[in-house]
Amino acid sequence: MAKEKTIHTCTECGGTSPRWLGKCPHCGAWNTLIESVAESDAPGKNRYSGARHAGLAAAQPVTPLSAIEATDIARTPSGLDELDRVLGGGIVEGGVVLIGGDPGIGKSTLLLQALDAYQRAGLPTLYVTGEESGAQVALRSRRLGLEGSQVNVLAEIQLEKILATIEATQPAVAVIDSIQTVYSEQLTSAPGSVAQVRECAAHLTRTAKATGVAIVLVGHVTKEGALAGPRVLEHMVDTVLYFEGDTHSSFRLVRAIKNRFGAVNEIGVFAMTEKGLKGVANPSAIFLSQHSEPVPGSCVLVTLEGTRPLLVEIQALVDGGGPSPRRLSVGLERDRLAMLLAVLNRHAGVACADQDVFVNAVGGVRISEPAADLAVMLAITSSLRGKPLPKGFLAFGEVGLAGEVRPAPRGQERLKEAAKLGFRVAVVPKANAPKKPIEGLTIHAVERVEEAMQVVRGLV
Ligand SMILES: Nc1ncnc2c1ncn2[C@@H]1O[C@H](COP(=O)(O)OP(=O)(O)OP(=O)(O)O)[C@@H](O)[C@H]1O
Ligand SMILES: [Mg+2]
Fold it and tell me: Which residue range is the domain that position 26 belongs to?
């Protein structure tokens, strides 16, 4: 392939420069020039050519929406139920999935298992490994009990060779493990750089759309937990999945945060075993830690992840701090924690201003739902007072700045699941109180935070 010219584009002003410069010659911003492939003079030679010749191009015929046949998207399930669930039923022809997660969480394991399942179902597959050698992949497949696997493996990191292989072998599903290791000859920057990742992902996406091959890109995550590389990566692909979970526990969650072909916020739950990742069909109780007796600072909530309720234990520790007390939260938003502490202080008279406050969602699960608010507040109060909440207690509900407790969606379902797991007392928002009593569960409906505190004081 002929080497195409590269230019450097400023991310601030869009100005270009033939050379990389520390300072943009147009707007003067520092470190904003990013390498990309230059526009080609030959029409159709690269993806920028359309834009360049837009003014000169002949008008194209357009079609009214009603005249376009809406064909159902054909999904191919992998047979790994939990993975299919987050994908919205299975992979889609020409669909591009980006899957991110911490190192060692199980990305390669899950995808190898999925490819093997597809291959066994008669679909040709391709596993492109840039991080491990073919022998390492073979070793993993042996550990996973995938003897005799017919998955095709390509140990390669050069984009042009990978694209040629995909086009020549026409697999139904191809996995690129990982996008950060792939580099294009067209660019001089190092593999993993913003320019390389963006360019390679764009080429792979175009190939997926042109050939109908479903492509899964594995992405590294930064220390903060976001996908490494350019933010645009998430916009380019059809589906973005995140692996979550504590590498010390065996449970792993795969969450869809974007899906052009299905619902988001659906989660797949897996358990890491010696034989790889096994789906957990009934995950509601896996994030409860096992205390034989209730302990201070612990409160259980029911969160709704996708279509299934999950019971998660929130732990809080409030401890004597110094002049600048720390607020730390794992699995919950820190800003939200600061807000809840302020509401606690103002509306419930619970002051933690001079205390360190640590909050943790057990099992490495991330809770983005505001319905966790009430449980977080009760856990903090329980830790501060050193008094455990009663056995079999749970709470959920969003808390507003005025101290009001707002309802959570699908409250009945949450309560029923809790009752099924043996929970006996619940504090919930008034609007979530069921009309008919739920067997075995005493429900206290509250409208305000201070009311919730009062109820709890009466219970312990
Ligand atoms: N014999 C074993 N028994 C149980 N679990 C194992 C065994 N060997 C490996 N594992 C698990 O598999 C994980 C490695 O998974 P995998 O290589 O798929 O992760 P990854 O997300 O692809 O990591 P990376 O980002 O480094 O590529 C280990 O962290 C460990 O939890
Ligand atoms: Mg890996």
Answer: 1-40
